[in-house]
Amino acid sequence: MQDAVIIGGSFAGLTATLQLGRASRSVTVIDAGVPRNRNSSGAHGVAGWDGLSPSAILERFRADLRAYPSVTQRSGTVTAIHGEEGAFSVTLADGEKSAAKRIILAHGVRDILPDIPGLAQAWGQTVLHCPYCHGYEVKGAPLAVLATHPMSAHQALMLRADWSAQVTLITGGMEGLDLDVLATAGVQIETRALETATADATGIDLSLSGGATARFAALFVGPRTSLAASPAEQLGCASADGPTGSFVKVGAMAQTSVPGVFAAGDLSRPMPNINFALADGAQAGTGCHASLLFPDLVTPLEVTP
C-alpha cells in the first residue's frame, strides 16, 4: 500500500510527485506519455524556462525525481480506480494494479478542435490557443481568431490590444458576438466560414467559403475541452462548467469532493497555463501530504446539491 498514486506525469503531476518524494513518501506517478502541449515547440512565459520545449522541461523533471528513492515513475494508461480513502486500487491497461491511500488526478483534459481540415496538423505550431503562451512570437503580424464560443471575441480583443494591429475574427455566422465592440477596437470581422487550413513554416493559409483565401502568421482557436473517460468520472468527483468545458472542482488544498482524492492542473481549472499547473501540483502534493499526517485537517470539498 503506497501513500499516493498520481495519474498524469506532466507539469502538475510531476510537481506533486516532487513534494511527496521530498517528504520520503511512497508514490507512483503514472504517465500515458501524451501531454497536452506535446505539439508545441516552446513553453513561453515560464520563468527560467521561457522558450524551452515542453518535452525538454519534463525530461528535467523526470531526472530530478530519479534522485528520490521513494518515487516510482511508471508509463501506462489508467483504466479504472476503485476503493476509498486509505485503500484505493488503480488498474492499468496492461492489467497491473497499484494500491494507494491517496489519489492525485493530474492527467489534464482532451482538446476538441473544430472539424476543419488542416487544424489538427498545425495545432501547437501555427494554430494556437493562448496569447500569453504564443502571442509574442507572432507580435505585429496579421493574426486570425476562429470563433468557436463567445470567449473567442475576448481572445480577439486581447490580441488586438497588445499583440497586433491586424486581427481578424472569423465568425462563420456565429450569433451572440458584440460586433460593434469588436469593430470599435479595430478587429476585422470575417463572416464567411473557414473550410480548410494549410500551414507551413512561416504562416497559415485559410480557405473561406465562396472561394476566398487569406494568409496569417497564426490562427488562434479556443478548443472545446473534455473530461470524458477521466478517472474523475469513475470516482464521482464534482465538476463545474467552464467557458470551454467542464473541470473538476477543488478546494483550497486541491482536495476534490471525494475523500482522499486530489486534483491539479488543467483538469481542475477553467483557464490552463503551465505556471498554474506548477502551482496546482505543489498545492496538491502538499495537500495530499497534509491529509496523510492530519486527516481531519483536509476535509473533502463540500458541494451544494
Automatic annotation (TrEMBL):
GO molecular function: oxidoreductase activity
Keyword terms of this UniProt record: Flavoprotein, Oxidoreductase
Keyword Protease: no
Pfam family, one: Pyr_redox_2
Signal peptide range in chain numbering: none
Start and end residues of each FAD/NAD(P)-binding domain: 3-273
InterPro entries: FAD/NAD-bd_sf, FAD/NAD-binding_dom, Ferredoxin-NADP_redctase_2
Protein name, as recorded: Thioredoxin reductase
Taxonomic source organism: Celeribacter baekdonensis B30
